[in-house]
Each structure stands twice: as C-alpha cells, then as structure tokens.
C-alpha cells in the first residue's frame, strides 16, 4: 500500500488553522493566502481554496524553481533547517508531546537569541572596542 499524498490533508489542515487575530474590535478571519509547492497543483484544490476565501499561491508543475515562490518558502525551509541543528528535534525521542514542544520552544528561543545577539550586540561590541 502506497502512502497517501499530502494534498488530501490540505483542506482538513486548513480547517484546523485558527483564525488570525486582527485589530481590537474587528472580527477574526482566516488567512488570506496559502503558499504551496507543485505537489498541491490541482485545479480541484485551487477551486476549493477560492471557495473558502483563501488565495492559492501554488507553483505550477513543470515550471523551474524560479517561479517566484522561493522568497516566501525559503524562510520556512531555513527555519526548519535551523531547528534540525538541535539533535533532539532532528529525531524525535520523546513520546510525550509536551516535552517535545518544550524542546521546540527552547530551540526557537536559542535561535532568536543567537540572531539578536549577532545583529544587535555585534555593532555594540565593535563600538565599545573602538573606544578603548
């Protein structure tokens, strides 16, 4: 038996996404756009997304990688790559979800700290070094 494609889980996943909060007093709404690779390229799913009020931005099959989606998708792929630097997240050892989520949160905090310390503290350290 072959494994089922991800595309059949697209709509149930979209239904489970919580509405994005807007300004205070405004009604909540669903995400406006959905970015996907060419594995999701099917007119049936494009129509169903439009009916739900979501604009599908899906790469067409047979087009080269420079189809314009790379700028947004690179952020997600880079984040997953950064999380894979942590061995406990690369291969999931924990059975309990709360422990795995705690390690995921800790890894995200460390990634943010490293990035902030590099961008904010780097120039500050250089300025202090120039004064002495």
Q: What is the chain-wise order of helices and strands? A: HEHEHHH
Number of helices: 5
Radius of gyration: 20 Å
Overall number of strands: 2
Mean pLDDT: 78
Strand content: 5-15%
The major sheet is characterized as:
2 strands, parallel
Sequence stretches where pLDDT stays below 50 over 5 or more residues:
none
**What class do helices, strands and sheet pairing give?**
mainly alpha
- When the domains are counted, the total is 2
Question: What is the helical fraction, as a range of percent?
Answer: 40-55%
Strand order of the largest sheet: 1-2
User: Any idea what the shape is?
Assistant: extended
End-to-end Cα distance, whole Å, is: 69 Å
Summarize this structure briefly:
This protein has 132 residues and is mainly alpha-helical.
Give your account of this protein's structure.
By secondary structure, the chain is mainly alpha-helical. It folds into 2 domains: 1-83, no CATH class; 93-132. Helices cover 52% and strands 6% of the residues. The chain has 5 helices and 2 strands. It has helices at 10-16, 43-51, 70-83, 87-90, 97-131, and strands spanning 33-36, 55-58. Strands 1-2 form a two-stranded parallel sheet. Helix 2 (43-51) links the parallel strand 1 and strand 2 (55-58). The longest helix has 35 residues, at 97-131.
